[in-house]
Amino acid sequence: MKILATGLRFPEGPVSMSDGSVLLVEIARGTITRIAPDGALSVVARPGGGPNGLAIGPDGALYCCNNGGFTWVDDGKILRAGLEPPDYSGGRIERIDPVTGAVTVLYERCGEHRLRGPNDIVFDGDGGFYFTDLGKNRARERDHGGVYYARADGSGIVEVAYPILTPNGIGLSPDGALLYVAETETSRLWAFDIVAPGKVAKQPFPSPHGGRLVAGLPGYQRFDSLAVEASGKICIATLLTGAITVISPQGEILRQVTMPDPMTTNICFGGPELRRAYVTLSGTGRLAALDWPEPGLRLAHAR
After folding, report:
1. Residue 92 belongs to what H/E stretch?
2. Torsions phi, psi of 62, nearest 5?
3. What is the distance between the terminal CA atoms of the chain, rounded to a whole angstrom?
């Protein structure tokens, strides 16, 4: 494992670029940041609030899930997100020009419902994207979360599944037929069968939201973001344990790759043959890279 960058303010949402750089968000700094192959840092955009999930769209622009911000807890060793802040700016989906840094708000609501804490995003090949809304926590209450589908041109957004307890990581199977959603507080991985862009087949009760349970972890572990291998295995960043948990599509826990940070939040694939994993070590503000035994899945619109 190699540490590519330090001094980041809760990095998440890494995106590997063809020039060898990595784009990511710094949630606590409110920026989109580029890490060059030599480790040099530069700010691409300053959307403010709480930029979270990040992906490249069909037009080459960046699409950002902005959660509206957090309070922060820093014990001198680990930085971690807290509650909805007094200056909470509202959840939204943003389009960001990677050259000029211009930020355009695409979506702030789905129908009559405001977005609360958009978290993670994945594009399909049909010009749209799925994203999770984790919701926000307050001192004595919390929001329900959900999964949504929206068009990259800003022409429409629909609810896919609701309610979900703290939906976080999201990804698609290699054939695009399954939508995976990682649930943070329960460390459960759910799958939804896609029948059309933005529409899934719902499982009956006792599924709380129509998803099919793939796997769950014992003990006190929490799921964050995820990435899918070309073979279809699901790699989920796992909080508290500080690991990447690899799960088969059939729900078998294959292995846990331990990382040096209990707030291991995101993984993406890049490099030659997509066999390099980039992992955000958010609590300690670092980006790590390591060789991965299997190639990652090439994302729609990757550049």
Report:
1. strand 92-96
2. -95, 140
3. 24
Looking at the structure of the chain, the number of domains it has is: 1
Could you tell me where the DSSP H helices lie in the chain? none
User: According to the 3-state scheme, what is the secondary structure of 121-171?
Assistant: EEECCCCEEEEEECCCEECCEECCEEEEEEECCCCCEEEEEEEECCEEEEE
Q: Domain containing 234 — which CATH number?
A: 2.120.10.30
Residue from 150, 148, 167, 151 nearest 159 by CA: 148
Asked if the structure places residue 218 within a domain, the reply is: yes
In degrees and rounded to multiples of 5, residue 289 shows phi and psi of -135, 140
Residue 297 lies in a domain: no
DSSP state of 119: E
What are the residues facing 247 on neighbouring strands? 234, 253
> Along the 303 residues of the chain, how does pLDDT read in single tens digits?
999 999 999 999 999 999 999 999 999 999 999 999 999 999 999 999 999 999 999 999 999 999 999 999 999 999 999 999 999 999 999 999 999 999 999 999 999 999 999 999 999 999 999 999 999 999 999 999 999 999 999 999 999 999 999 999 999 999 999 999 999 999 999 999 999 999 999 999 999 999 999 999 999 999 999 999 999 999 999 999 999 999 999 999 999 999 999 999 999 999 989 999 999 999 999 999 999 999 999 999 987
Compute CA 99 distance to the chain's CA centroid, rounded to the nearest angstrom.
23
Other C-beta atoms closer than 10 Å to the C-beta of 161 total: 24
Q: Which amino acid is at 183?
A: E
- 46 - beta bridge partners? none
Q: Are 168 and 223 in contact (CB under 8 A)?
A: yes
Domain of residue 149: give its range: 2-291
